[in-house]
Structure formats: C-alpha cells, structure tokens
Amino acid sequence: MTSLSTLPQEIIDLIIPHLTKQDFTACVRVNHAWSALFTPSLWSIVRLVDRTIFDCIDANDAHKALARNCHHIRTFETTDAPFALCLAIQYPSLSHLTSLALRLKDEPLSLTKIFPSASLEEDGDYAASYGNAVATVRLLMNNRNLRSVSLNASCFKYRFGEDGFPLVISAIHVEHLEKLEISFLDPTRNRNDGDDDDNDISRTIDTTYDAGQDFNRDFTKAIRIHNAVAEFECLIELTIIGVVGKTLDGSRLAFLARCPHLEIIRLDRLDNIAMTLVQPLLKKFCPKLRRLDWTNPGIEMDWSIAGLLRVSKAGWRVLRLPYMAFFNQTSFSALMESVETLEELKIEGWRAHWSSALSLMQGARNLCRLEGVADGERRRYAVGLVVDASEAYMQYVEDRIEKGLDRSWVLGSSMEYYQMQINNVPRPDVVCRRDGGELRFQPAELVSYRLDVHRWIYTQLARMTGLKELVLGVPDYQSTVLATYGLDESLDSVELERALSSHPTHIFNYMSLEFSLESGLERLGGLKELEVLDVKSTAHRIGVAELEWMHVNWPKLKVIKGLVTERRWAGESEAGLKVKIAVEEWLAAHPHGIGSSFIPTPSTISA
C-alpha cells in the first residue's frame, strides 16, 4: 500500500497547492513522516493582519514554535509592529523570505512584553527604542531572495520620529526583487477611498508647481546618490501611494533612478507636486514602461495628465486611468500616441467629444479590453465612453463618398471586453420617457436611417469575434449616490429604474441599439464566445424571438444584464408587461444560462 509520504515529489507538489491552512494543521498531526512532509507548507505563509501576537497564541508557545520553524517562512505579512521587531531581532534564521509586507502601526515597541523568557541581544529598555525603521532594515538585510516587498510610512520611522527612508531603501537587496510597493499613507488614518469622489472637481489646489522654485533642496543630491548605487536588476512592478493634499518629499522619489527595467507603475493619491516630479524621472530612467495604473488623483490639469501619458517611450500597452475632470484634447492627443500599442484601456470618466472615442476605435488595432465607468464606480456627474451612432454613420458615409476613406472600426477578434455607450440611434418606436414625459423630437431624416445606422453599428461590433463581454448599458450608481436619493441599493434592477425615473439626473439611454431581429441582430451571429451582454437602462427590444436566436447563435451566453424591463419607453405599458412576462417565462425554462451550451430544465426538454 502506497502512503502519501512515499509518493514522488512531483505528485506531492501538485497536491499541496490545493490544501488549506486547516488541512496542513491536520496533516502534521498524523505521524512523524507527515509532520516532516507538511510542516514547511504549514509555516510557508505567516500573516498577522489587524491583530497582535497576543490575540493568537501564548507568548512562550509562540517563541518555541518560531524558533523551530522560522526557516520555513517564505511569505511574511503583518500590521503588528512589536511582532515584526521581535522577528527581526530574535530570529536570524528568518532569512529565506521571498515576500515581505509590513503595514505597521505607530505604537510603543518592547521585546520583553512579547516573549519575557527570550534572551535579548540588548536589554529591554534599549530594545524598546529601536523603532520600526530598524526592524524593517534588519528584515530586509537578512533576506537576500526577496521578490516582493510592501512597506508603509511607519516602516520609515525610528522610535523618536527620525526619518529612516534612505536607509530602508538602501537595505533592499537588488538581485531578485520584482515587485515593490511604498505607501506614505498615515497608518492611523481611516479613509474611505470614495469619500471625496464627488468633490474632486471643487477641491482647491493648495500648491502650484513652479519649475524654478526649489521645493526640495535635497532632490538633486538624492538623484546623484541613487545613480551611484546598484540598480534594481529585476524590479518590473512599482506602486507608490501618497496622500492627496499633503506634499510628498521629492527626494523619496529619487530611487526611480535605480529602476531601468520597470514595466508597471501604479500611482495612488499623489499630490500635484509629486506628480510633476515623478514624470521626468519615469521618462528618463524607466524606458521600458508599458503599464500605468493611476487611482485617486488630485486635481490634474490637461497638460499635466498629458505629461504623465507621455512618459512611456515604447508606448503603453495597459492604461487604467481614474476619473479626471480636466481630461481634454491635450490629454487625448497624448493618449493617441500609444493607440497602436494599447491592449487594455480603462477610463473611469470620459469628457472628450464622441469623435475622440471614435478615433480611438479606428486606430487601436491591438486593443483587447476597453472599459469605462464600472458598476459601483459611477459618480453623479461622470460621463462614460460614448459614441454618437448617427453622427458616426453619417461621417462614415461622407468620408467614403467624398474622400474615399474607410472609417470602419479596427477592433477585431482580439477584443474580449468592450464597454461603450452607443447613443443617438434613430428610434421611432420610442415615444415617451419612463416617467411619461415626452421624448425630444427626432428629425425625420434620422428616422429614415434607422436600419442603416443599426446595421452599420452591428457590422462594427461583429468584427469582435472573440468578445466575451459586451457592455452597452448604463453603469449602476455608487451606493453613496443612491443614498442621496433615499434609495436602497438592494432594489432589483426594475425597481431601481422605476424609482430613479423621477430623478432628472438619472441617465436612461432611450436612443440605444434595439437588439431586435428586425434591426439586423443576425449580423452579430459570429460572436460565439459571448458570455455576458449588458443592456441595463436602455430601450432594448429583446423578446422571446431574440432570446431563441441568441440561444442558437451565442451558445456561451450566460446572462443578459438589464434584460427584464416593462418597456414603458414604448408608451404601451400593457404590451410591455406582456413582453416582460414572456421573457421571464423563457428565463425560467433556461435557469442555467441563455446559450445552447447550458442545459435547460427537464420540463423544457420534455416539452
């Protein structure tokens, strides 16, 4: 009989990733052989977050267990400063880490209070004065194989407030580090990321950057020092987290001079001065940048946004951008400089003209993912990615006839996720708003182009044969915005739309694509990989006939978000209610999914 401990190591390596911490704990108790086999895995990850060592285990037991097993730890993460200091000083065998995350809190440190029976290098009073910077430096210096390091502001402080940032950065071994995160946020500050979302546009700029003004006299000196230090040989991913409204010491960005292989940069909450300083550093010292994740900005001017978008010398492949009140033509021009290399683009708010979005889709040949404002990220005044369908079609016809140019979209089979609001589609069938008010007048010449516009848009979408998610609906509000309307976010989509209909700021897309067979839906028959269709808050005309067509032609389609609607935009609530009931009955017969790859209910099969 073969036991687990006698299996080849290759088989054991396949089994271990599927076991939980509880599984490892049980396994080490079976016998000595199993204990020897699974103890390294049990101790490979040690996380103590938002708790202290005293909350978990008896101090003496912890001391003995750590003494036996410290050499097994590969990932260490904690917010408990005394625990980090103890490991740094008392356990030199903790030297095989590959991942270190210290998000320490400012609090008194004392080794004697942690392990009273432990023999200390120095007396307790002296140890208590070390501070987090010394603990951080020791952990960094003892571990030469670190591949990932995450440090917060408290890691750079000595016990009595002296700054230890230069020493901490210099203590990181450069041979293997691939990922670095540095946060300057106050660890004691409890801030919700979205608290100030609706105030971005009105936030006062407290400081204005003047290139001739010396904000940091040590900045140039710091650059020279870092130029003389060994570069990070493998560092490809860097995250810098600042504090909006608080000026960041520019010398703390000088280490970018040691990051020539950086490919991914994440910037969060950087103030205006820090943003101005970081741009030339990235452009000069980081020539391989290909991905930018930017979140929680201050007020950035159009030229400043453009400057950040131009720091990549090879062109961005991935851009994930926040809501920017001043993202205008200069910023868009900078964005378009990377249009041929872009593979993923996310912009949480888009204030550019619809023709800009159209230009993007006519040039981004390698794009795989296009995102706008996601559900729950929507602000009261943010504008999503929008194309004016009628204008786009008329421009296409005009350019083809008068200039011989083809203005078709280049997005093709590489696209997997596409999010865009397609507006101003001629819809003579839309006769009223959901609240009963009159819809704006549609010119007769546009109504006559109804089918032409629909089918041209369908033709553009049909090129994306690898598409998995097609998002054309209006994104959901943030819960905080719903609360201002006195609405419960737990309402289902139909109830929520009905409740929002009386609010003038609610955006319902009445001039949307119909998605009806009559309008030319069959042109999308090639989207065989489609899994999700989002038509929330749009005047779609998807009924049972369309669902039957989708069942056959979109075999992987799991769900249609916003499918169920009373169609009050058609002005015939009774007729709309009949469609709603028929759709719900069809869905009840296909509970696992809409496409043919999902097994229908037995009752449907027998029928």
From TrEMBL:
Annotated InterPro entries: F-box-like_dom_sf, F-box_dom, LRR_dom_sf
Gene3D superfamilies per UniProt: Ribonuclease Inhibitor
Domain F-box intervals: 1-46
UniProt-recorded name of the protein: F-box domain-containing protein
Organism: Linnemannia gamsii
Upper taxonomic lineage: Eukaryota, Fungi, Fungi incertae sedis, Mucoromycota, Mortierellomycotina
